[in-house]
Design brief:
Elements lengths: L6 E3 L1 H15 L1 E2 H4 L6 H4 L6 E3 L9 H10 L6 H7 L23 E5 L10 E5 L9 E5 L2 E4 L1 H8 L5 H12 L12 E2 L6 H10 L6 H8 L9 H11 L13 E7 L2 H7 L3 E8 L4 E6 L6 H17 L3 E6 H5 L1 H14 L11 H17 L4
Helix pairs in contact: 1-5, 1-6, 6-8, 6-9, 7-9, 7-10, 7-15, 8-9, 10-15, 11-12
Length: 370
């Protein structure tokens, strides 16, 4: 009896697939906030069925190529669109979508046996690990990708801490990576910080698992953009990793307004990028592109006035201030005091760690495809 062979796409390829799928399933910010449209119909939910076993993995390029080319499943086209644009597996350049594609020219495939050599177009990753249930997601007959949690662990073997932290925020956030900066898109989070950490603990013997656990502990959920991720990561990451070590904050947490404040805000709730409820203090990234230009500035003014009516202070950080190390340090030190912590003296070597963290986060966002 001939066993059924499966393809397990992993590492950069599974990450590219997840991103491409996210862009295909994303909606505009306006649609996301349209209460008349059911959320479950707008955003991906339960799209894939899970399998927990790595077995009968295809190891021949010809077999893999034939399987990917013969599949008519629409979701599998995301593999061509994002990961195979520079390989023989693609039928041509795709129009629309994320448009960038994965810069890694080879597909990354997981196999369960030794002695398999890389080819010009496929990088094989041998693994004999006992994977937790739900590690693989079936996207088409005999084609599986690694789950967001497993992909996070795999990328920990090739990414530095800051870049891995940014990836964790992305997977647990609400924004798909897209090359259309003028259109604000959202989607469901693909996982949670708790699930990331739990998975890292269960797969502790995997390459990169130690760094993955360290980063997963510092990931926060519900970031809504790469800039919000950068701000939150720099503010909340521990000092030993180059962050400013502010106390834990809520990201994009709805704040219920009083009747008077609701009239000013023209709504019953306000969402802050970072919020400390006990301190009645929030931080907002003020980027004109992400907040809708001059109309967005008027809206932001109403929000600040409404929060002030309810005794909530709001600190705004502009793009220029976030990029300027000195100004960013002054603002976040002020935030530290405002949330009830004493000023922290910088130890020797901190600035070097901070610059590495800052560089790795920004480099990841500027070149998210590797």
């Amino acid at each position: 009896m001939v066993s059924v062979m499966n393809v397990y796409l992993c590492h950069n390829t599974s990450l590219c697939f997840i991103r491409e799928w996210s862009c295909r399933q994303a909606v505009s910010l306006r649609a996301f906030h349209d209460s008349s449209m059911p959320l479950n119909e707008l955003l991906p939910h339960g799209a894939f069925s899970s399998t927990s076993i790595l077995r009968s993995a295809m190891t021949r390029e010809g077999q893999i190529r034939q399987l990917l080319r013969e599949s008519d499943d629409a979701i599998l086209k995301a593999i061509e669109g994002s990961c195979a644009a520079q390989t023989p597996f693609a039928s041509g350049h795709r129009k629309g979508g994320s448009g960038q594609g994965c810069s890694k020219a080879r597909l990354h495939v997981l196999v369960d046996r030794p002695g398999v050599s890389d080819t010009q177009h496929i990088a094989f990753h041998r693994s004999s690990l006992d994977y937790p249930r739900g590690s693989f997601l079936q996207v088409a007959p005999h084609v599986r990708i690694c789950s967001p949690e497993l992909t996070f662990v795999q990328m920990a073997s090739v990414l530095p801490y800051g870049s891995l932290l940014a990836l964790g925020y992305e997977l647990c956030g609400c924004y798909p990576i897209s090359d259309e900066p003028n259109i604000r898109l959202v989607r469901r989070p693909l996982t949670t910080p708790q699930r990331l950490l739990a998975y890292c603990e269960r797969l502790h013997q995997a390459p990169g698992a130690k760094l993955a656990r360290i980063a997963a502990r510092e990931v926060r959920a519900r970031s809504a953009s790469p800039k919000e991720t950068e701000l939150a990561a720099l503010a909340l990451a521990p000092v030993r990793q180059g962050g400013f070590g502010l106390p834990d904050a809520k990201l994009n947490e709805p704040i219920a307004l009083s009747a008077a404040a609701a009239k000013v805000a023209r709504g019953s709730t306000i969402v802050c990028d970072l919020y400390w409820p006990k301190a009645a203090f929030g931080i907002e990234y003020d980027g004109r592109a992400s907040h809708g230009g001059s109309g967005g500035q008027t809206r932001d003014s109403r929000r600040r006035d409404a929060l002030a009516l309810d005794g909530i202070d709001l600190l705004t950080v502009t793009s220029d201030q976030l990029s300027n190390v000195t100004e960013c340090e002054v603002l976040l030190d002020h935030a530290r005091v405002r949330v009830g912590k004493t000023p922290r003296r910088r130890k020797q070597g901190f600035i070097e760690k901070h610059m590495v963290l800052r560089h790795d986060i920004r480099n990841f966002h500027q070149n998210p495809w590797g």
